[in-house]
Amino acid sequence: MTDASVSDVLSKIKDIVVEMIDESTSPFGVPSGHIYAALMTTGLSLNAYQQLMAHLVREGRIRGPENHCYFSTKKVARG
What we know:
3-stranded antiparallel beta sheet; globular; 3 helices; 3 strands; single chain; Arc Repressor Mutant, subunit A; alpha+beta
């Protein structure tokens, strides 16, 4: 794979993860383990998963982890 195609795949994976978290109706967030379990079937390592999620948090596309769960930044936090 070329660097451009790897970048495209990574961008699509990030978009899918963010969409999944945004569409969650749980007030408790999306468990990190559930997200990783879905992605590990693609061969994604734990280290790569942790880097991916940290990157999404730094970009402000998701928030967390809080109690091992991730939350949408599009939803208003209730408290």
